[in-house]
Amino acid sequence: MKQILEILESNARLGVEQISTMTNMPATEVEKTIRQAEKSRTILRYKTVINWSKLGEERVQALVEVKVTPQRDVGFDAIAERIYRFPQVHSAYLVSGTYDLAILVVGRTMQEIAAFVAEKLAPLETVQGTVTHFLLKRYKEDGEIFEGGEEIKRLPVTP
């Protein structure tokens, strides 16, 4: 199963027959393994990474560090769930260090993200503080290099 999942993680567009050839497993076994992984939520979803700036559609991203007060009997889980349910939040993580949660927020403008943090996130009763870091340029995401990564740059060999 692990080999199939690793293949799908690197290229979700591959078909069952291709994966079967790559793993030397029967196609029926590959298909069954994928279905089981989907059913058990081992495979959560298939994703496409898009470079929106190529279409002239800018999207602003910000990494927001959140300091919270953990709640009795549920720790950080209840407040994390409340935060990750907001549609602006694309990713949420419990982290070590000065802050407790790191969330990735996506919006159309910096003002939209600032309003989300100020009006929705910061006022939550267990939120003690936030620090917002706007992401200025994406170089690599989910293993994909965005700009300038197509060609291999080598130094010329001279005698």
Describe the structure in your own words.
A hairpin with a 6-residue loop joins strand 2 and strand 3. This protein has 5 helices and 6 strands, in the order H-H-H-E-H-E-E-H-E-E-E. The chain has helices at 2-10, 16-23, 27-39, 77-84, 110-121, and strands at 60-68, 89-94, 101-107, 127-135, 140-141, 144-145. Helix 2 crosses helix 3 (27-39). It has a 4-stranded antiparallel sheet with strand order 2-3-1-4. A two-stranded antiparallel sheet has the order 5-6. The chain has 159 residues and is α+β, with helices and mostly antiparallel strands. The model has no long low-confidence stretch (mean pLDDT 90). It folds into 2 domains: 2-39; 58-137, Alpha-Beta Plaits, CATH 3.30.70.920.
CATH architecture of the largest domain: 2-Layer Sandwich
Helix content: 25-40%
Write out the CATH superfamily name of the largest domain: Lrp/AsnC effector binding domain/regulation of amino acid metabolism (RAM) domain
How many structural domains?
Answer: 2
Fraction in beta strands: 15-25%
Q: What is the succession of H and E elements?
A: HHHEHEEHEEE
Largest sheet at a glance? 4 strands, antiparallel
* Helix-strand makeup class: alpha+beta
Strand order of the largest sheet: 2-3-1-4
Task: Describe how the helices and strands are arranged.
Blueprint: H1 2-10, H2 16-23, H3 27-39, E1 60-68, H4 77-84, E2 89-94, E3 101-107, H5 110-121, E4 127-135, E5 140-141, E6 144-145
Antiparallel strand pairs: 1-3, 1-4, 2-3, 5-6
Task: Give a quick summary of the entry.
The protein has 159 residues and is α+β, with helices and mostly antiparallel strands. The chain has helices at residues 2-10, 16-23, 27-39, 77-84, 110-121; strands at residues 60-68, 89-94, 101-107, 127-135, 140-141, 144-145. Helix content is 31%, strand content 22%.
